[in-house]
Design the sequence.
């Protein structure tokens, strides 16, 4: 296995608050990497630093061995970083297909219209949204919006996909579908880093887990290892992590 | 359901453009045949409407990226002063002043656009307004020998039709002059419409809409917001710069307060809002509609007609928030697909569990508290 994504000493301070502090980790090619931690631990800020929405106070992000410093969100997307947001944010004035088409047309340079439409339809089929392709994006249900969020990221043809709490707000049946989708994506060669609160989902999906607390890395390891770690248990207010989920 | 195939759908926009061009080609002769001598003033009313349409459509092209500019008087004035300064200081063909006005406006747009890239909403609007006022101030205070100062500069007309005794009546000289200007404005509008249609048919339309809706998300999906916003700025300024140059010739002078008038900026934004934003047709309909309303009211009320004009504007914005074209288009789309679209809230998934997540603050917000709120 080779390292696909690496952060070294990554930090982000907002005034006096260190939202992310000296975070270093490596994601191997082809693995599913979970980022967990209590509310306010800095998980979303970490993803924002990786995808270029925030400029780090210190530290670096490398993708396939290349430093991404100074690159904006779009340039990082072109290099292969895909991102799905926690709060789903479709473009409401567009149809579902048009939403995905934006990612297909602009996610990689030099994609022709026909090829972009093919990639968009492929991404829609992948997440099972093909039947709603021509509907307005604002008509989708929450589950469908989450699928759209993933389809848009997939259409940019990423090498690593960053998912921010895709399971939040989903009912158990829907969450199981989403888990199956993520597994399928990995089997097709995608590397996935995801933030998740629902611990059974982390257990089912993650090859390795990074635990954050107060902006810092608490520990990294397999699901079994980190859930046995007394510091992790304490971070979740003394509760068993499996029961600390909303 | 036909919108998805818009790329292959019947080209209504192209047909509309051809009809408009044909109508413009015969308009002066038709007016002359119908109204005789009065056609002289009708022609200039129609030309004013075309001028408003160019201004409004250009403004709309920038607005499609979410940048609501209050700087369009700056581009208009830059074009006007460019042609006036060239006439005064350079021995060049007069017509060159029009493209030169466009080029100078584009350069100013590039300057302003790069300064305002990171500004959003009200901060962007204030910065653009200040930019226009700075240019006006420069026009006021530049050395009188160079740019005329407060008194401005005279600008020679583009057309001087000669009176031929015995072959035409006196008013026909004015008609020929107005007719020539009409065709210049119609040509400039056609050019602006072509640029707008090209934008709407290309992938840039999606990029612009994405940036307008959510710049952060657009960026993460590979759209380069800075590049797109600057491109929109330049395209928007080009037509307005040329318009300012042509208008300087038609009016016969440039003056700081007239060339950089806040009224230009206000019309540039009110007209697309009235007609319908983010389309090619909306700003044009807005310009023709507002010009007609204004002219009708002027004829009926003489003094104080602007009060009526204001009432019409306010009523339209209150009761047709999508603008004339937008409202008609919306009603048309709602027509065929009533029930399936009527109850999206009844769909599964948007239940109580989903609501708090959706109400949470924007994920990419530049604020650590956003995460805490979103995690809840």
Sequence:
């Amino acid at each position: 296995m080779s390292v696909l994504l690496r952060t070294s000493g990554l930090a982000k301070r907002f005034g006096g608050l260190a939202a992310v502090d000296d975070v270093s980790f490596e994601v191997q090619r082809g693995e599913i990497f979970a980022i967990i931690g209590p509310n306010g631990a800095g998980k979303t800020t970490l993803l924002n630093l990786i995808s270029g929405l925030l400029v780090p106070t210190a530290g670096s992000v490398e993708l396939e061995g290349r430093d991404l410093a100074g690159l904006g969100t779009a340039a990082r997307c072109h290099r292969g970083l895909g991102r799905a947001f926690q709060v789903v944010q479709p473009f409401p004035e567009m149809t579902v297909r048009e939403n995905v088409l934006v990612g297909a047309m602009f996610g990689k340079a030099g994609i022709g219209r026909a090829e972009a439409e093919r990639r968009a339809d492929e991404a829609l089929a992948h997440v099972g949204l093909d039947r709603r392709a021509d509907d307005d994006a604002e008509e989708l249900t929450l589950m469908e919006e989450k699928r759209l969020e993933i389809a848009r990221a997939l259409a940019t043809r990423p090498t690593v996909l960053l998912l921010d709490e895709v399971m939040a707000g989903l009912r158990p049946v829907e969450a199981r579908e989403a888990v199956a989708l993520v597994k399928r994506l990995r089997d097709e060669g995608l590397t996935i880093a995801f933030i998740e609160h629902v611990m059974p989902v982390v257990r089912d999906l993650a090859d390795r887990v990074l635990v954050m607390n107060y902006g810092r890395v608490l520990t990294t390891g397999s699901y079994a290892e980190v859930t046995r770690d007394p510091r992790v248990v304490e971070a979740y207010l003394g509760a068993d992590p499996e029961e600390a989920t909303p | 359901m036909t919108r998805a195939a818009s790329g292959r759908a019947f080209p209504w926009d192209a047909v509309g453009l051809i009809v408009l061009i044909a109508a413009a080609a015969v308009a002066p002769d038709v007016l002359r045949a119908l109204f005789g001598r009065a056609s002289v003033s009708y022609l200039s009313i129609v030309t004013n409407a075309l001028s408003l349409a160019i201004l409004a459509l250009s403004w709309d092209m920038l607005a499609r990226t979410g940048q609501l500019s209050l700087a369009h008087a700056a581009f208009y004035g830059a074009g006007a002063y460019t042609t006036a300064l060239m006439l005064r200081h350079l021995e060049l063909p007069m017509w060159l002043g029009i493209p030169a006005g466009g080029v100078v406006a584009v350069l100013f747009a590039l300057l302003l656009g790069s300064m305002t890239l990171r500004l959003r909403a009200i901060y962007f609007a204030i910065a653009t307004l200040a930019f226009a006022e700075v240019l006006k101030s420069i026009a006021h205070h530049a050395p009188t020998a160079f740019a005329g100062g407060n008194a401005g500069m005279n600008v020679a007309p583009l057309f001087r039709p000669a009176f031929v005794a015995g072959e035409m009546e006196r008013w026909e000289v004015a008609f020929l002059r107005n007719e020539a200007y009409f065709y210049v404005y119609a040509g400039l509008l056609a050019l602006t419409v072509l640029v707008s249609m090209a934008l709407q048919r290309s992938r840039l339309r999606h990029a612009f809409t994405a940036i307008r809706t959510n710049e952060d998300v657009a960026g993460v999906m590979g759209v380069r917001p800075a590049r797109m916003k600057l491109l929109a700025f330049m395209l928007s300024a080009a037509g307005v710069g040329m318009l300012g140059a042509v208008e300087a010739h038609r009016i016969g002078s440039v003056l700081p307060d007239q060339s950089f008038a806040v009224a230009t900026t206000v019309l540039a934004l009110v007209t697309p809002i009235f007609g319908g934003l983010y389309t090619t047709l909306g700003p044009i309909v807005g310009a023709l509609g507002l010009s007609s309303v204004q002219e009708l009211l002027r004829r009926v009320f003489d003094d104080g007609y602007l009060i009526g004009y204001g009432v019409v504007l306010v009523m339209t914005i209150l009761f047709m928030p999508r603008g004339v074209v937008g409202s008609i288009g919306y009603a048309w789309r709602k027509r065929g697909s009533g029930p399936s679209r009527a109850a999206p809230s009844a769909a599964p998934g948007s239940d109580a569990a989903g609501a708090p997540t959706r109400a949470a603050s924007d994920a990419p917000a530049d604020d650590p508290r956003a995460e805490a709120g979103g995690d809840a």
About this structure: Chain B is about 75% helix and 0% strand. Chain B touches chain A through 48 residues (CB under 8 Å).
